[in-house]
Amino acid sequence: MNGSGLCISALRQLMQAMCQGPGYDRVLSKVDVVTASPGKVVCELKVEEEHTNRLGTLHGGLTATLIDTISTAALMYTENGSAGVSVDMNITYMNAAKIGQSVLITAQVLKQGRTLAFATVDVTDKVTGKLIAQGRHTKHLGN
User: In the prediction, which pLDDT does 5 show?
Assistant: First the structure.
């Protein structure tokens, strides 16, 4: 359990609840939380046809959603426990992930201040460790 009282099982339940709603978050239904520690969350996704673009590789929009959502989970898994709202997100796409590949999404909170938080996310091939994409996410936390 971390300072906010959120334990890994609660984080898993939160992710599952998000996917059961009627909105866009349903695309995350096959994301599994692997590990979590304060300010860091690691998830896994096996790329399936529903996750791909016309070229049969992990869709860039889904990659952006993974970076957004998993970095937010890492932020919620801190002492403050606030999800905040996105202010800026930058993603660099370096390699493709094909159907059947498993990717790890590793989100780390770099800094959490009074009003802003900064996170970085690496999307890597689970087997080779090859970097698929890297993102940076800035969130406004409120007052």
Answer: 44
* HSE of 14, CA atoms in CB hemisphere, 13 A: 16
Ramachandran angles phi, psi of 109, nearest 5° = -75, 120
Q: pLDDT tens digits, residue range 103-134? A: 999 999 999 999 999 999 999 999 999 999 99
Q: Looking at residue 112, what DSSP letter applies?
A: E
Of 80, 131, 142, 79, residue with least CA distance to 106: 131
Tell me if residue 115 falls in helix, strand or coil.
coil
In 3D, which of 89, 76, 90 has the Cα closest to residue 40?
76
**Tokens at 103, concatenated:** 């990717």
110-125 burial, b at 16+ Cβ within 10 Å, e below that, comes to eebeeeebbbbbbbbb
Residues 4, 126: Cα–Cα separation, whole Å: 30
